[in-house]
Design a protein that fits this description.
Radius of gyration: 24 Å
Structural class: alpha/beta
Shape: globular
CATH superfamily: HAD superfamily/HAD-like
Strand order of the largest sheet: 3-2-1-4-5
CATH class: Alpha Beta
Distance between the termini: 63 Å
Oligomer: single chain
Order of helices and strands: HHHEHHHEHEHEHE
Length: 224
């Protein structure tokens, strides 16, 4: 009788444990995650990480350009830069809307052409031009935003470029990889060697057509 009671008690404890203890760890709340993202940005960690990655890319670009200038058969060297969260920052918009937006909101923000520069990337841009490296921009923004995008880039300090590639209005693929890699292929078909490709999304970098790729941090959103 005692053994049966002990067994029933053990089963009851086990059942209670299974009910009360979640099998999977509960993720952080959305509020906690937003606070973490804001702290990451406001503490300066975000800017420091960008500066470190860009400095690494700048060193490679300069060394590659120097070797090219000494070559008997120099190539037409180029770099490719993404725009949002790579060349300019939309953080002031994102934090205001709590990191959530519709396509219509994003479109209106892009048309404002008010996003400030990410200073480390502007330094890399000027350094590349100084070393006779051509600059191209490839962005996931759509063609209808071309004028505003060019206006914003120039206001941020990017005054010249060899090409600005934006998605066609009817682009409907689930990923930007085909568009962005296709644009890089087009650049190489023009006779350029892309020595560095910089972007904040892995989809900015996938698909080849660049000697080196540099992924910048972006905890704010994800684009396939």
């Amino acid at each position: 009788m005692t053994i049966r009671l002990a067994t029933r008690f053990s089963i009851a404890l086990l059942t209670s444990s299974l009910i009360c203890s979640p099998i999977y760890a509960e993720p952080a709340s959305l509020t906690q995650l937003k606070n973490e993202v804001q702290s990451y940005h406001d503490s300066g960690s975000y800017e420091k990480e960008i500066a470190a990655i860009v400095a690494n890319a700048k060193q490679y670009i300069n060394e590659r350009a120097q070797k090219n200038s000494l070559s008997k058969h120099p190539k037409k060297l180029a770099i490719v830069l993404d725009i949002d969260e790579t060349s300019i920052s939309n953080y002031h918009h994102m934090v205001k809307r709590q990191f959530i937006a519709t396509h219509e909101q994003l479109h209106r923000e892009n048309l404002e052409a008010s996003s400030p520069v990410l200073k480390p990337m502007l330094s890399l841009y000027h350094d590349a031009l100084k070393h006779d490296v051509t600059v191209f921009f490839i962005t996931g923004r759509k063609e209808s935003e071309r004028y505003a995008t060019a206006k914003n880039l120039k206001a941020a300090g990017f005054h010249t470029w060899a090409g600005l590639y934006l998605k066609p209005e009817n682009y409907n693929k689930p990923s930007v990889v085909p568009f962005k890699s296709g644009a890089r292929k087009t650049i190489e078909n023009k006779g350029y060697t892309i020595i560095a490709n910089l972007g904040d999304q892995q989809s900015d970098l996938n698909g080849g057509y660049a000697e080196k790729s540099y992924k910048l941090p972006n905890p704010y959103y994800y684009l396939p």
